[in-house]
Structure formats: structure tokens, C-alpha cells
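User: Here's a chain of 175 residues. Predict its fold as C-alpha cells.
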Amino acid sequence: MAQQPGDTLVLFLILGAILYLIATQFIPRFRGNPPSEPKEEFRGEVPDLLRENGYEVIGGKERIPLSIEMDDKEYESRLYIDYIARQDEECYIVIVARQRKPLRLSGAGLRDFFLAYYLLCQPDGLLYVDREKRTVKRIFFDVPELPFHAKRSRAGLAVYGGIGLGALLLWLILF
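Assistant: Prediction complete.
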């Protein structure tokens, strides 16, 4: 089969479109613009308290599964988000206070309790809602830029490597 002018360009455009579609699937939904309209009306004590404080609830109960590998053993865990709220185009993760898990008001206590949510979701901030005291506390992290780059996950590299290999095979077959 003879190569036509523009075949290589079309191949790279298709590859670029595939890479774009895959890359957008790995971006957490908390980055960028949150959904413009809530899909459902959230009712209850916590959503009402958030509305009283000027927040709009745009998401509810999220369970984020985590897989952790240590040496050659794999562990499973999860992280729970109670609500997602926004105010003035800023997106917040909402964590509701629980009696069984009291919050220690110290730098280490706040870090241990909230940093995982911040690093995983990268919201504009976090809201800690105490139903009993009827309070909404705002938490912000200022994490400095590190002089080194963390390694990318193996899953991402495998996906991109597979796409590259597939594109190479397609190119060899067609040309």
C-alpha cells in the first residue's frame, strides 16, 4: 500500500486525540471547573448548614478506593468524602466531624487528618463541619514546590507505553 501525502499527519492527529481522551480520564474531577449545576438537591443538616454559610453543595458521599503497595504486598483502603461544595467558583471538599474520630487542633493533628484529602483531590480548600457546634471551619494548605519531581505511577506509564506501541504497530502495518 503506497503512502499518500498527509497519512503520517492523520496518524499523529488520531494518536493525539487518543492521548487527550485517555489523559482527561486520569484528571480528578475536582481540578478545573466544578460542575456548573448540582445534579440533585442535597437535603439534611449538613447541606443546610453549608447553605447558611454561603456554600452550594454540588456533590455528595464519595468513596475513593486506594491501593497501597509496600514491598511486595498490596493493601486496600479507602478515603471518604462527605460532600463537595463551592463558593465563588472555589471548590471545597467537605469533611463532617465524627465523635469517634476527634480532631486534634495542632499542626500535626490537622496535617494527619486533612492532608490526604488535599493531596488526592487538590481542591481550593477543605471545610470541616461540626454538626453539634453548628460550625464550618475552612482549611487551606500552602505546600511549597519541591526541587524534585515525583515519579509517575506505573499505571500511567503502562497506558502511554501501550498507546505508543499500538501507534508504532499501526504505522508499521500501514506503511
